[in-house]
């Protein structure tokens, strides 16, 4: 059976010399692994269109519990990501995150839109890297069953205070008045960072990347979102470590214990 779907290549591996195995975020099938015969050969018709970050339309043959790439038409390759090492590193982390978290074997139209939007902004360098990173982490996790409750303080119901604490294990908020009532690792957020955190989870997708923060506040938001991601998924990402290496930015540390 042949299936034609939009998609983005998340990861590429070599198979049997000249063949290529691709992990693809597809619109119709979610995340899949598909094989491209001879694609490691630069002269192969599918060589460039099955490289990492290639975005376009894929015609797949489904049989014997695997997918074969019959044809790939690359419409938006995002190859300019390779012109900047930090953008490239962050794009690789985002692709690894999608490979790990995004749904499989079902429609993933919104997930593909999110991925393409992130790669577009990283490729064009029109939005700050940390903003793109935080927005992708929180929105993807929220869609895939790890949504935090950012509506109010979990104890008293307060919508905001001068400082709200984001609990990265339970995914809840606690206001400063209630912070001493229990003990849990938390990130203190001012009003700007809190508003941005809520935006990453609740805003319409076409407005997801349309916010701005002072650099110092954006760094706080990014650390909180990253800590939430690694805590919820309970795993490390080699691509995330590489991103921190090339940006000379340390991994988040536990900011407070309340």
Structural account:
- Helix content is 36%, strand content 24%.
- Helix 1 packs antiparallel against helix 6 (238-247).
- The strands form 2 sheets. The chain has a 5-stranded mixed β-barrel with strand order 1-2-3-5-4. Strands 7-6-8-9 form a 4-stranded antiparallel beta sheet.
- The chain has 2 domains: 2-74, Nucleic acid-binding proteins (OB fold (Dihydrolipoamide Acetyltransferase, E2P)); 119-257, de novo design (two linked rop proteins) (Up-down Bundle), CATH 1.20.1440.
- The protein has 6 helices and 9 strands.
- It is an alpha+beta fold.
Provide a quick synopsis of the model.
With 258 residues, this protein is α+β, with helices and mostly antiparallel strands. The chain has helices at residues 85-101, 109-124, 129-146, 191-202, 215-233, 238-247; strands at residues 2-15, 19-26, 30-36, 55-63, 66-74, 164-167, 172-175, 185-189, 256-257. It has six helices and nine strands; from the N terminus they run βββββαααβββαααβ.
Give me the secondary-structure topology.
Elements (H helix, E strand, L loop, with lengths): L1 E14 L3 E8 L3 E7 L18 E9 L2 E9 L10 H17 L7 H16 L4 H18 L17 E4 L4 E4 L9 E5 L1 H12 L12 H19 L4 H10 L8 E2 L1
Parallel strand pairs: 3-5
Antiparallel strand pairs: 1-2, 1-4, 2-3, 4-5, 6-7, 6-8, 8-9
Helix pairs in contact: 1-2, 1-3, 1-6, 2-3, 3-4, 3-5, 4-5
